[in-house]
Specification:
Layout: E1 4-7, E2 10-13, H1 17-30, E3 38-42, H2 49-55, H3 62-76, E4 85-95, E5 100-109, E6 120-127, H4 132-135, E7 136-138, E8 144-146, H5 148-165
Antiparallel strand pairs: 1-2, 3-6, 4-5, 5-6, 7-8
């Protein structure tokens, strides 16, 4: 019988599980090219007709979209919104079949940042996300936060948006 080892508050099996854990970690580390992709494009405050049709197929309910937009806005002040631009997150739609979510946002240059407009509309299409559970992590207490993969994809989007505006 394998002996049990207690470390860091968790009980683990000394044989078998440790080897499996190491192998899984190694395989995940080798899959570095599989992070979600981010595609940035110009957008507008109005929803084009094809997007209006897609909204009826949105994998997010209005309440879920509002929750995700609020979580994005909450984390923004500590991350992306600390630079030359401020962001207003306006719309989020997810297409479950296409495994994509599209965030529409308004970008505001801060005072002193050279700019040809007061604001810019952009959209950020991220791949690998199918709906609320793929975007938001909910703890046992009900506390919600952005899933790490979605946060990473949004970070890539914000960097691309800023690079294209410079």
């Amino acid at each position: 019988m394998p002996r049990r080892v207690v470390r860091w508050g968790y009980e683990i099996m000394a044989r078998g599980y440790w080897v499996g854990f190491c192998a899984a970690s190694w395989l995940l580390g080798c899959s570095g090219g599989t992070s979600p992709a981010a595609e940035v494009s110009d957008s507008s405050p109005t929803v084009p007709r094809s997007e209006v049709e897609e909204l009826t197929k949105n994998a997010l309910s209005p309440a879920q979209a509002k929750t995700v937009l609020t979580l994005i806005d909450d984390i923004c002040g500590d991350t992306w919104c600390d630079g030359d631009y401020d962001f207003g997150f306006r719309r989020l739609t997810c297409a479950k079949a296409a495994r994509t979510c599209t965030l529409t946002l308004q970008v505001f240059p801060r005072d002193g940042v050279p700019s040809s407009a007061k604001s810019y509309w952009r959209s950020c299409k991220t791949s690998g996300f199918t709906g609320f559970a793929s975007l938001v992590s909910t703890g046992p207490s009900g506390y919600q936060s952005l899933q790490n993969d979605y946060y990473d994809a949004l970070t890539e989007c914000m960097f691309q948006i800023e690079d294209k505006l410079r």
